[in-house]
Amino acid sequence: MERRKALQLLALSSGAMTIPAWNSIRAAVLPVDTTADTDTILNDLKDEPAARCETRRENGGLRLYLNDQQIYPFMALSTNIVQMAPTFNKAGIRLLAPILGMQSFWKGPSDYDWQELDRFFAELLMLHPDACFLPRLHLNTPLWWREEHPDEMLKFGLPVDPERYKIEPETILPGGLVWESGQEVYEASWASKKWRQDSGEMLQAFLNHIEDSPLKSRMIGYHPTTGVTGEWGYFGARFLPDYSKPMQKRVDELPTAKERMNTTFGLLRDPQKEKAVIDYYQ
User: What is the mean pLDDT of residues 95-101?
Assistant: First the structure.
């Protein structure tokens, strides 16, 4: 079949797919027993060596190897990963990407509690004993950090309804991820050196904990992320961030919101007339 024809058929078939209602998807997820004995499950891993995961180029393509054994690079991700773990196990999907809300384990300055984290991984291993993990580490800041460092928080070029700043925890998912209303406009500026330093120290403490734990035999890597949907999209983008004090220190000139929303050269920016905007985005 010609390549063009194949792409047309793919587009048509994709457009014809139907997505079931969210409630029907949730109903298909059956309850599971999560009464894991953390100490026993982790103790069973103590004689396993630390996981070694790498890519190798063979026969013109990349191959994924886990402990020198080739493994199919198919990874399962779900906000309901505890309930889905038995299904992934039955499907033969060994690699899981659990979402970890690091803010739930970060209790205060240089104060971390990893017990709930260990219990979470023990639950997954109870339901999927052969699982290996590439955890998705969400670096959203804890509420106590935001309250202690108001000068490190995002500021916006467009007005924001003050009500949107109200933080009301709605749901804490297994793994510690906190769904909050208002969080999008009440987060740390990525230009903040304090945020980078404190988050870095928290990540180092997390890595030290894992590497000193039997869990190191099941960790194939780590995926740090934050931002909108955990994809490094700037929080509150529609309100034009970032006019925070940390950002003001990083650039020579802060362009106005009007300058950012308009260009002098169609879809492009004229470096002679819009240097401040270009420099700002860089």
Answer: 96
Bond prior to 242 in cis (omega within 30° of 0): yes
Tell me the C-alpha distance between 13 and 196, whole Å: 45
88 CB contacts (<8 Å, ≥6 apart)? Answer: 76, 96, 128, 131
* Dihedral sign from CA coordinates of 69, 73, 77, 81: negative
Q: CA torsion angle for 4, 8, 11, 14 (degrees, to 10)?
A: -120
Amino acid at 75: M
- Taking the C-alpha atoms of residue 251 and residue 20, their distance in angstroms, rounded to an integer, is 48
What is the tens place of the pLDDT at every residue in 110-144? 999 999 999 999 999 999 999 999 999 999 999 99
Angle CA(116)–CA(117)–CA(121) in degrees, nearest 5?
Answer: 115
Which residues on neighbouring strands pair with residue 146, listed in sequence order? none
Residue 65 CA to its chain's centroid (Å):
24
Question: What b-and-e string marks burial along 216-237, b requiring 16 or more CB atoms within 10 Å of the CB?
Answer: bbbbbeeebebbeebeeebbbe
Please check whether residue 183 is in contact with residue 140, taking contact to mean a CB–CB distance below 8 angstroms: yes
What pLDDT, on the 0 to 100 scale, is given for residue 7?
42
Q: Is the dihedral of CA 162, 164, 170, 174 positive or negative?
A: negative
pLDDT given at position 2: 55
Question: Strand order of the sheet with strand 53-58?
Answer: 53-58, 61-66, 69-70
With 80 as the cut, is the pLDDT of residue 48 above it? Answer: yes
- Phi, psi values for residue 185, rounded to 5°: -105, 10
Residue 224 tokens read as 């740090």
